[in-house]
């Protein structure tokens, strides 16, 4: 089985994915880290030096390469992965892939991301909590169309990562 986690920045794909991989004893892959390995620079540098369009093309290509492998794994995607090109179609077309949308409330996303915004190039320019909230509200509204195409939706607005891992496992049974 391949499990693909989708959701907004800060929804917990990387954190939940790592824990889930330990419980299910499946290898964990993070699409952002895979891209950084292949490109040999950080995501922030890809955005600033090569631009977002370049990043989206690489992201789509690396996603397709990973999902075409016969190995089983848990993949944490980037926050924008399903929202560009044919990426979400590609994910849902694979019958050996279970896609899971980690759904997190606007309030919680703002709380989590305000201290981590500088690690995320799309948020780095925002100056205060109000701007962060306004940006995320609009962005999440646009992106929810893609996230909602996932096979399963799991709420991840609590502080407790283990609780979310349990919810995911119950949905997989
Ligand atoms: N219930 C929870 N599940 C996951 N992460 C949580 C939870 N509560 C708090 N966090 C924190 O939220 C932050 C964001 O999580 P994470 O980096 O896993 O998000 P992400 O979805 O991978 O984001 P991105 O799309 O930017 O890669 C982390 O610092 C994590 O510790
Ligand atoms: O939501 C997004 O578009 C992004 C999320 C991160 O995971 C990275 O993939 C990058 O910072 C872009
Ligand atoms: Mg991540």
From TrEMBL:
Its cofactor is Mg(2+). GO terms for molecular function: ATP binding; magnesium ion binding; shikimate kinase activity. ATP binds at residues 10-15, 120. The keyword Metal-binding applies. One of its GO terms (biological process) is amino acid biosynthetic process. Its EC number is 2.7.1.71. Binds 1 Mg(2+) ion per subunit. Keywords: Amino-acid biosynthesis, Aromatic amino acid biosynthesis, ATP-binding, Cytoplasm, Kinase, Magnesium, Metal-binding, Nucleotide-binding, Transferase. GO terms for cellular component: cytosol. It catalyses: shikimate + ATP = 3-phosphoshikimate + ADP + H(+). Substrate binds at residues 32, 56, 79, 143. Pathway: Metabolic intermediate biosynthesis; chorismate biosynthesis; chorismate from D-erythrose 4-phosphate and phosphoenolpyruvate: step 5/7. Mg(2+) binds at residue 14. Catalyzes the specific phosphorylation of the 3-hydroxyl group of shikimic acid using ATP as a cosubstrate. Monomer. This is Shikimate kinase. It comes from Aequorivita lipolytica.
């Amino acid at each position: 089985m391949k499990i693909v986690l989708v959701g907004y920045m800060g929804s917990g794909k990387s954190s939940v994915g790592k824990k889930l991989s330990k419980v299910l004893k499946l290898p964990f892959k993070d699409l952002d880290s895979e891209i950084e390995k292949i490109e040999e620079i950080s995501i922030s540098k890809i955005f600033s030096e090569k631009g977002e369009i370049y990043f989206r093309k690489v992201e789509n290509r690396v996603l397709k390469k990973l999902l075409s492998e016969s190995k089983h794994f848990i993949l944490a995607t980037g926050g924008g992965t399903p929202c560009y090109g044919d990426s979400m179609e590609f994910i849902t077309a694979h019958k050996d892939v279970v896609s899971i949308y980690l759904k997190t409330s606007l309030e919680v996303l703002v709380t989590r991301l305000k201290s981590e915004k500088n690690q995320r190039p799309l948020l780095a320019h925002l100056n205060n909590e109000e701007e962060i909230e306004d940006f995320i509200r609009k962005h999440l509204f646009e992106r929810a169309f893609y996230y909602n195409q996932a096979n399963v939706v799991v709420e991840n607005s609590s502080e407790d990562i283990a609780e979310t891992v349990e919810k995911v496992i119950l949905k997989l049974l």
